[in-house]
Amino acid sequence: MLTCFIGAWKIPINVTQESYDRVRNNPVPVKRKRPRPNANFPDQENNDLSTADIIITNINPPPIEYRPCVMLSGFGLGKEEQRMVLQLGGTIAKNYSDATHLVMKESVRTTKFLCCVSTVKHIVNGEWLKDSSTQHMFLGEAIYTIEEVSVDQKVICKVHKILSNPNRHELFKGKIFYVTPGVTHPSVFVVRQIIESAGGTVEKQRRSLRAIQELEPNTYIVVASNNDLHLVADLIRSSYGK
Prior knowledge:
Number of helices: 9
Oligomer: single chain
Shape: extended
CATH superfamily of the largest domain: BRCT domain
CATH architecture of the largest domain: 3-Layer(aba) Sandwich
């Protein structure tokens, strides 16, 4: 049988000149892989600027331990804003846990706000970055701090109160979450980011009813969509969560 397979490769294939010319003049297009999205924020393109051509314009660049690590929210690709940060001697945050500053174009709730509000030191508007760039130095954040964040023009939180809480990164400390796969607005990935940024734990598999009942009350929290109610039917029928 092996001889039969090898023999097939020895048979020459006749290719006409016309066929050869057609392939040569119309090559098959090569598909290029798209760059991988940011691991922490999948809706954001991987658009980091190269630092090779960046010239530091800061007249008094901060030492490494005090260097602002900036995350941008609402600026789209934000190339110009990234350039400002780098020219001032700052860095661009790769994930929310590294960020010291969240710069927001508008005072509205965003995924980055929900992730960063538990960890960053400052939440400021875009004018802080523009004015700092004009002055060639990082300016104080006080007058640029965002006071309120809203959704549909309704205030949902007072930012300064949250930032003044030294334990805000422990909001979900000791809490265990399970997010059903049908959760889409926001996605399971984003919900996980928000929970973990506030000290919570997200498990990929749901625990059994018995295992949940053995935990302390209000320790295990399930986030489910209407389409996933069959996955938590036993919890609904029981006294769990009541």
